[in-house]
Amino acid sequence: MNVLVTGTSGRVGHYIVQELKTTGHQALGVDIVPGKNTSLIVDLTKSGEIYHALARAKADAVVHMGAWANAGVVPDSRTYGENVQGTFNLFQACADLGIKRIVSASSAQIYGFASVPPQYVRVDENHPINPVNSYALSKAAGEQAADYFVKNFGLNILSFRLLGIRPPQELGKQIQDLMKNSESGSSLLWTRTDARDCAIACRQAVEIPEVESGPYNITGARVLVDIPTQELIQKCWPDTEIRGDLHDFESPLCCDRAKKAFGYNPQYVWSPSKRHLES
């Protein structure tokens, strides 16, 4: 399979290119700036550059990670405007060229847990969203655009609500900081995702023959502190409803939909006592 990957200079994009290539696929990495596994410089706000990239890749599918990756990197008007424009441009080009399968990076920031606690845990894709910054708002708009292109052009778009994606070399310090102050971790549900697991999820989602469009939570399997998840919830969010069984240290963000749809099951499960550094 030939796959175009956008955003390959970011935290996860080059891992996606590596994962695709090592499993027998062809992958062309593009970004607005040079980086590891970035083969072509592309500005997603310029439609012509996207058409060229898709043609050069001979793309059968797209993994779209390209975006300003948080609020505050550039002015909010650019964060929102360019993220939304780039995503729309890419979807439109895929629709015009008959490229049906797209994995598109949304974000768990759209739930707004930096501002308000969850209404219930484990948090599934039916949980209300509450974007609290320009980046999260752009991701909510990206999901709406995906719904539009699925309905009107027959595209098959999976919007990955990614939580706490980090390259492995950053995760050790993240764990140390959380262990020192567990309450500081509530906005990201005390959970991080190894970028390699996100890459595997993207590869699984483009490989599977049939899969339903829509949002999919993607994150690590467990909280990164040695405090049971239910205890964390009751301590930090006493009014949050706990639905069903909340086992041991499992993440409050539920990825069951991704597991059922395309087999997502994190392989790099970090904890205070376990590391998975790159060799």
Please outline what is shown here.
With 279 residues, the chain is α/β, with parallel strands linked by helices.
Describe, in plain words, how this protein is organized in 3D:
The model has no long low-confidence stretch (mean pLDDT 96). Helices cover 37% and strands 16% of the residues. The protein is an alpha/beta fold. It has a single domain (2-165, 193-220, 253-262), classed as Rossmann fold (3-Layer(aba) Sandwich), CATH 3.40.50. Helix 1 (13-22) crosses helix 6 (195-207). The radius of gyration is 18 Å and the shape is globular. It has helices at residues 13-22, 47-57, 76-97, 134-153, 168-180, 195-207, 229-236, 256-262, and strands spanning 2-6, 26-31, 40-41, 61-64, 101-107, 120-121, 156-162, 165-166, 193-194, 214-218, 241-242. Strand 8 (165-166), helix 5 and strand 9 (193-194) form a beta-alpha-beta unit. The strands form three sheets. A seven-stranded parallel β-sheet has the order 3-2-1-4-5-7-10, with helices on both faces. Strands 6-11 form a two-stranded parallel ribbon. The protein has a two-stranded parallel ribbon with strand order 8-9.
